């Protein structure tokens, strides 16, 4: 009998924040020292075992930007197959609850008006997030 080894793909759940403030949206540029160097992303990161998406989001945003956020709306989950693993992005539209941002991981952040978001070089999964964010904005009008 031939045995087939099927390796399970790693599935990584990544809550992230589309942070709105004064009519603009925050984009973060990944550090040159990390995976996907210098790509743009929405701040956030991998949820830990037994951690809710919301708790992971708050923790990651505090770790990366040193601010508190309030969730306004959950956007559709989007996934990206990276070959050896699958990233499940769980995006939340948020507003700031505190305002003194201190960067601990990102190379830089930019505040952009929504229509300008696609001008940056995003990680692939984020293109879906941006589309879904545009749909959310259109539905609010
Ligand atoms: N926070 C965040 N991560 C994203 C986005 N899009 C996307 O593909 N990712 C990927 O999701 C993973 C989040 O991991 P992380 O922020 O907790 O940790 P990390 O940079 O050390 O990641 P790594 O596992 O690739 O080394 C990264 O690989 C990142 O590239 C996004 O919009 N926000």
From TrEMBL:
GO terms for biological process: DNA repair; DNA replication. One of its GO terms (molecular function) is 8-oxo-dGDP phosphatase activity. It is an enzyme of class 3 (hydrolase). It catalyses: 8-oxo-dGTP + H2O = 8-oxo-dGMP + diphosphate + H(+); 8-oxo-GTP + H2O = 8-oxo-GMP + diphosphate + H(+). The keyword Nucleotide-binding does not apply. Residues 9-134 form the Nudix hydrolase domain. It comes from the Bacteria. It holds the Pfam family NUDIX. Its cofactor is Mg(2+). Keywords: DNA damage, DNA repair, DNA replication, Hydrolase, Magnesium, Metal-binding, Mutator protein. Signal peptide: none annotated. InterPro entries: MutT-like, Nudix_hydrolase, NUDIX_hydrolase-like_dom_sf, NUDIX_hydrolase_CS, NUDIX_hydrolase_dom. Its EC number is 3.6.1.55. Belongs to the Nudix hydrolase family. This is 8-oxo-dGTP diphosphatase. It comes from Dyadobacter luticola.
